[in-house]
Design a protein that fits this description.
The structure is a homodimer of 130-residue chains. In chain A, 49% of the residues lie in helices and 11% in strands. With 130 residues, chain A is mainly alpha-helical. A three-stranded antiparallel sheet of chain A has the order 1-3-2. The longest helix of chain A has 27 residues. The interface between A and B is large, with 63 and 64 residues. Chain A binds a DNA duplex (30 and 30 nucleotides) through helix 3 and helix 4.
Chain lengths: 130, 130
DNA sequence: TATTTATACTGTCAACTCCGAAGTATTGGA
DNA sequence: TCCAATACTTCGGAGTTGACAGTATAAATA
């Protein structure tokens, strides 16, 4: 990181979009940039095969509609799997796919760090709410 | 990961409200959950002390108003520093703070992985645009 | 002198996306 | 008949984003 910035006349990058810049603007990151998405992956990772109600209970702050949307997106993206049992009352279980577990591994350090930061920030009194 | 959740019995360190769940819903993650935020941290990490124009050029997709907002948020959060030189034409340089670099370290694996995933997804033809 | 250029934004407004409260469907039990 | 339980939808308002235009400054240019 922190490459020499004087590369105004830098070596022929604009010719090809074969950017070595690791900043994907496309699919997965856009998905994960939505509210609660990363945390959602994280809880499913934590509590394993989880029913809708379990997840909802864990995320008191999130409305069911938003939760529903996020779950669907994550399933569509191949990060979560959804297993439906035809019972009454209905039962549905969400679980990480293999891809989802890969993601979880990358997410965990980030979330842990964030938790830490939030605590120290709260301690020093700096608050910035959304 | 998928730790056994019974790690609650560990060292009883935090007197804080219970949750050993590593899914912070507060400040930093909320900030990073906004569109382009993570990628923004990433480019500043990549190109070092960066001027507004440089960043804007890198993110063609982002409007200047949004970029401006994100930068401000990240500066307020202590992730980026902003150095203003009183020259004409004006010059402003953004750089990662120490905290920002910590974040960058956690972000890099995620973004790399995302890039990879997007490529294979594109290859298999599954698309989900925002 | 007047105009252009360069930079880093800010303002405005319309479009888009997100969010939460309340409602839906199903069937067994009181 | 009414209620409970589960996993969602629906709807209208709130919040976010983007396109475009404008601001400030002084040196360079016509």
């Amino acid at each position: 990181m922190a490459e020499t910035p004087d590369s105004a006349t830098e070596t022929a990058d604009s010719s090809s979009p074969g950017h070595d810049c690791l900043c994907p603007l496309g699919g997965v990151m856009d998905l994960l940039s939505r509210r609660y998405a990363m945390q959602l992956v994280c809880v499913v990772d934590a509590i394993g095969p989880a029913r809708y109600g379990d997840i909802e209970a864990t995320f008191e702050e999130v409305s069911s509609s938003t939760l529903s949307t996020r779950l669907e997106e994550l399933v569509d993206a191949g990060i979560l799997s959804r297993e439906q049992y035809d019972e009454i009352p209905p039962r549905v279980e969400y679980e990480l796919t293999e891809t989802g577990e890969e993601l979880g591994e990358r997410l965990e350090p980030l979330l842990r760090w964030a938790e830490e930061i939030d605590e120290t920030e709260l301690a020093t009194g700096q608050s910035k709410e959304r």
